[in-house]
Design goal:
It is a single chain. The protein is α/β, with parallel strands linked by helices and 220 residues long. The chain has four helices and nine strands. The strands form two sheets. Strands 2-3-9-8-6-7-5 form a seven-stranded mixed β-sheet. It has a two-stranded parallel sheet with strand order 1-4. Strand 6 (137-141), helix 3 (147-158) and strand 7 (163-167) form a beta-alpha-beta unit.
Length: 220
């Protein structure tokens, strides 16, 4: 009787040990499969990364503004107006504009937020131009502008929907105001032409897309 129990116990232990060995073998196989799958995924990511880098490299070359033709004409009020056509095509690459800052033209499909937004770094023109298309006035300045003027202009922008402000060291004058198709230089924040430009061009009749959003875009 005792012998039969011992045999049964030994048989059960053997089955358990066999099951344990089988489970360990399955775990080893699963680890091998997981490692193999990881290698494939990593390889795919590497290849994809190379393609992405190449794609980004391709996009780094600026393209000509496809439909912009014409020239600036300066009025008696000092405002430079673009007489001609300004492109409005959405593009993924950077654009070679006719002026700095640009007054319009082909641009990125995503705009910069322009609900009284003040940026401390230079913006990509392609995004800011889209803001102009929505009726924003863009205030830009160089390091030659006084700190007091920059602070006063920033305060005005923050209080005015459909405006934005950013530095731009590439422009020719210390302080410039830009709207779609229109641009002027001002001497200081207290220059009466600042208020006049805002009154005329913030959501002015020059706006290609009046009422379009100035939020929900990019922010610094």
């Amino acid at each position: 009787m005792g012998s039969a129990k011992n045999k049964s116990s030994a048989s059960r232990k053997a089955r358990i040990e066999e099951m344990r060995r089988a489970e360990q073998a399955r775990e080893r196989r699963n680890r091998i499969l997981t490692i193999a799958a990881s290698v494939v995924i990593v390889a795919g990511l590497v290849v994809g990364g190379v393609v992405l880098v190449r794609s980004q490299s391709d996009n780094s070359d600026a393209v000509a503004d496809s439909k912009t033709t014409g020239k600036f004409v300066t009025g008696k009020d000092g405002v430079r107006t673009w007489e001609g056509t300004l492109g409005r095509t959405h593009v993924a690459k950077s654009v070679k504009y006719s002026s700095e800052p640009p007054v319009g033209g082909d641009h990125n499909q995503v705009w910069m937020n322009c609900n009284g937004d003040v940026y401390t770094k230079e913006l990509k023109n392609e995004h800011a131009v889209h803001s102009l298309e929505h009726g924003a006035v863009w205030v830009t300045y160089t390091s030659k502008a006084s700190k007091a003027d920059v602070e006063a202009l920033a305060a005005k922008v923050k209080q005015t929907p459909y405006t934005l402000m950013s530095p731009d060291e590439k422009q020719k004058d210390p302080i410039m105001l830009t709207a779609w198709g229109h641009q002027r230089t001002v001497t200081s924040a207290s220059d009466p032409n600042v208020a006049k430009f805002f009154e005329t061009y913030v959501q002015g009749k020059q706006t290609p897309e009046q009422g379009a959003a100035c939020t929900g875009g990019l922010s610094e």
